[in-house]
Amino acid sequence: MWLLIILGGAIVVTVLGPISISGYGDFDYILTSGLKAAVSIILVLLWIVILSKMNNLIFKKQFNF
After folding, report:
1. What is the pLDDT tens value at each position of the chain, 65 positions in all?
2. All residues at 6 or more sequence positions from 55 whose CB lies less than 8 Å from its CB, including other chains
3. Which of 12, 29, 39, 48 qualifies as a FRET site for 62, CA 20 to 30 Å off?
């Protein structure tokens, strides 16, 4: 599980690192940071859902009543 979390962080860094926006003057850095923040939050939430589903599949217990 920890390996998957670290792998997810590495994927986010390699995907979001080279993104840059130009053409807006002084707002380039603000727009780039906002875009990277929004995309990283979405990816983190998606990664949490994926890891949660994997955890439920791996540790699924059956209760007999």
Report:
1. 678 778 877 877 888 888 888 888 888 888 888 888 888 888 888 888 888 888 788 777 655 55
2. 1
3. 48
